[in-house]
Amino acid sequence: GENVEQHPSTLSVQEGDSAVIKCTYSDSASNYFPWYKQELGKRPQLIIDIRSNVGEKKDQRIAVTLNKTAKHFSLHITETQPEDSAVYFCAATPGGGADGLTFGKGTHLIIQP
Amino acid sequence: NAGVTQTPKFQVLKTGQSMTLQCAQDMNHEYMSWYRQDPGMGLRLIHYSVGAGITDQGEVPNGYNVSRSTTEDFPLRLLSAAPSQTSVYFCASSYSLRGGNTIYFGEGSWLTVV
Q1: I need a labelling partner for B64 at 20 to 30 A (CA). Which of A2, A17, A61, B13 fits?
Q2: Do A97 and B98 touch (CB under 8 A)?
Q3: Is the CB of residue B82 less than 8 Å from the CB of residue B14?
Q4: With an 8 Å Cβ cutoff, is A45 touching chain B?
Q5: B44-64 per-position pLDDT tens digit
């Protein structure tokens, strides 16, 4: 099955700086890569996603890049703000989507004032 | 439109007891699933369903049963609870199983087995 590795497990950045979270996946047939943000005690919420036929996607301060050859994708957050503090999960849909989403173990992003 | 609704939100069970976590969605989604979330482990798929009458196992199915008698409901049953099943459980749904369909999560159910 699919295996998703996520790094780092904890990331601390100064407010206003950029944050980058990286994920690798194992199944070359995976074709959909969402990112979820989870605040303490809340449900995961989709913040951005990318499909395998696109290399980069942006939404205001958030961007995701995908390198299919290397089988890795990254989340970029620019001009970080206190409300960006949360746990972020990457995920991949295995080939054909038959098994739902496989998640990385999460990155705890801490924004230092 | 309530989205994905889970009950109960909190539950304490004794070892060996049984219980059912309820999940309902009102978005006419084909695909529903259950995940458990443990510290440092991310979210792991327990069971999923691609439509009424169809269920299948995910990554960690042992100790759990599911059924899908209607499109709207997808209950998760613990037949004989064990302390290892202490976790946060999330129900999720999406329009279809094909990649690119947003998966929506319920608010979560915090389960403690003592």
Answers
A1: A2
A2: yes
A3: no
A4: yes
A5: 999 999 999 999 998 899 999
